[in-house]
From TrEMBL:
Organism lineage: Bacteria, Pseudomonadati, Pseudomonadota, Gammaproteobacteria, Moraxellales
Entry protein name: DUF4179 domain-containing protein
Domain of life, per lineage: Bacteria
Record keywords, A-Z: Signal
Signal peptide stretch: 1-23
């Protein structure tokens, strides 16, 4: 019994040490990934930079007025018909999940 426990402990310690050596070896041999900043910017990055430059040319007051106007014009109060329709659709959804058995 004592020798079996000793063998089991010895094998466990060897596997533990082997795992750490293997992990350290992988860490040391894996090349570090570096980002090359000399690459050409993507078309999306170019468009974003151009948009930022164009916004800088316009006076900020005009930009703010346009943003406020666009924000207020897009918001509309929901009508009673729209709310009733949403309520009906939601009720149907709940009834499909929880059908009434007696009524």
């Amino acid at each position: 019994m004592g020798t079996q426990l000793f063998k089991l402990l010895f094998i466990g310690l060897n596997l533990f040490a082997l795992q750490h050596v293997h992990a350290a070896n992988i860490k040391s041999t894996t090349p570090a990934i570096t980002l090359n900043s000399n690459k050409q910017p993507s078309p999306i990055e170019k468009a974003l930079e151009q948009l930022k430059r164009d916004e800088g040319k316009m006076p900020s007051v005009t930009n703010d007025k346009l943003k406020v106007k666009a924000f207020t014009s897009s918001q509309k109060e929901p009508t009673q018909h729209f709310l009733a329709e949403q309520n009906q659709q939601f009720s149907r959804l709940l009834q499909s999940f929880f059908p009434s058995q007696g009524s």
